[in-house]
């Protein structure tokens, strides 16, 4: 049975409140497609009943299942290759120099299934092997299912073919079933945990390099401003923030400057 307008609106309000996801109009078919598989698992007859119970009872397993189903988790290895070129040639060498040997902390803030975090780890081990041993990479996502995938570190052949060069595939991935598993040296640099960017940030610490790519586009201006405010509390002068090329961080306080004049999506924190 299709979603009624009332049920769609209730779900939209719920997702906006819980994870700041803006459903908008014209996505009813997508919602039905993503939520229908949950009916059998949770024993509901239709989506109206599922959404009603979701909103009224907020049973944690159902809440998480709906969030996992509704968030977009599109990612790939070395997505936007030019960004990684800039990291390799300009950003990371300067960070290591400025931090004077101190262990760098890196955060992939919308990590999905982990390819971004592991791409960073590969770049560091491949190009900065002596320094990579001291790097800590945190991968977070609102989807528990994606966090579990990152921890597992297994990717299908199709996933590895999307952006992962063959030399790096051979060096850092081990054939496993019908795909590949990350090698221990790679997994040792990456830890994963669940995090909702739209809620208060807790126990994160300070980062030297932050990736908030392909996530800000899904948020309202108010949530973007909230994220920017939270972010400044987790950076130190000289820290670098990377967004997607089509995204930007609100900066009413003038906290950021471009690392490269022609790349406004790579920003250095002034303090």
Automatic annotation (TrEMBL):
**UniProt superkingdom:** Bacteria
Which catalytic reaction applies to this protein? Answer: L-glutamyl-[protein] + S-adenosyl-L-methionine = [protein]-L-glutamate 5-O-methyl ester + S-adenosyl-L-homocysteine
Q: Which UniProt keywords apply?
A: Methyltransferase, S-adenosyl-L-methionine, Transferase
S-adenosyl-L-methionine as UniProt keyword? yes
Q: Which EC numbers does the record give?
A: 2.1.1.80
Does Transferase show up as a keyword for this record? yes
The first-level EC class reads: transferase
Q: Where is the CheR-type methyltransferase domain?
A: 1-271
Q: Which Gene3D superfamilies match?
A: Chemotaxis receptor methyltransferase CheR, N-terminal domain, Vaccinia Virus protein VP39
Under PANTHER family, the record lists: CHEMOTAXIS PROTEIN METHYLTRANSFERASE (PTHR24422), CHEMOTAXIS PROTEIN METHYLTRANSFERASE 1 (PTHR24422:SF21)
Record protein name field: protein-glutamate O-methyltransferase
Q: Which organism is it from?
A: Ferrimicrobium acidiphilum
């Amino acid at each position: 049975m299709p979603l009624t307008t009332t049920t769609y609106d209730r779900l939209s309000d719920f997702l906006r409140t819980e994870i700041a996801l803006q459903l908008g109009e014209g996505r009813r078919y997508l919602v039905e497609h993503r939520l229908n598989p949950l009916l059998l698992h949770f024993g509901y007859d239709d989506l109206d009943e599922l959404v009603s119970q979701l909103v009224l009872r907020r049973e944690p397993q159902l809440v998480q299942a709906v969030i996992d189903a509704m968030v977009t988790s599109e990612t790939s290895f070395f997505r936007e290759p030019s960004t990684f070129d800039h990291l390799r040639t300009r950003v990371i060498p300067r960070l290591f120099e400025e931090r004077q040997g101190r262990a760098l902390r890196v955060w992939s803030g919308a990590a999905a299934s982990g390819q971004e975090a592991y791409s960073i780890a590969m770049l560091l081990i491949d190009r900065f092997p002596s320094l990579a041993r001291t790097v800590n990479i945190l991968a977070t996502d609102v989807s528990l299912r994606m966090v579990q995938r990152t921890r597992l570190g297994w990717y299908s052949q199709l996933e590895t073919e999307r952006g992962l060069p063959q030399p790096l595939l051979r060096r850092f991935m081990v054939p496993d079933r019908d795909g590949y598993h990350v090698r221990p040296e790679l997994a040792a640099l990456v830890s994963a945990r669940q995090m909702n960017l739209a809620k208060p940030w807790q126990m994160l610490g300070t980062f030297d390099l932050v990736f908030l790519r392909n996530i800000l586009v899904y948020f309202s201006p108010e949530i973007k401003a909230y994220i920017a405010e939270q972010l400044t509390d987790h950076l130190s002068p000289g820290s670098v923030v990377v967004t997607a090329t089509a995204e930007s961080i609100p900066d009413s306080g003038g906290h950021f400057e471009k690392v490269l004049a022609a790349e406004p999506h790579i920003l250095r924190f002034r303090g």
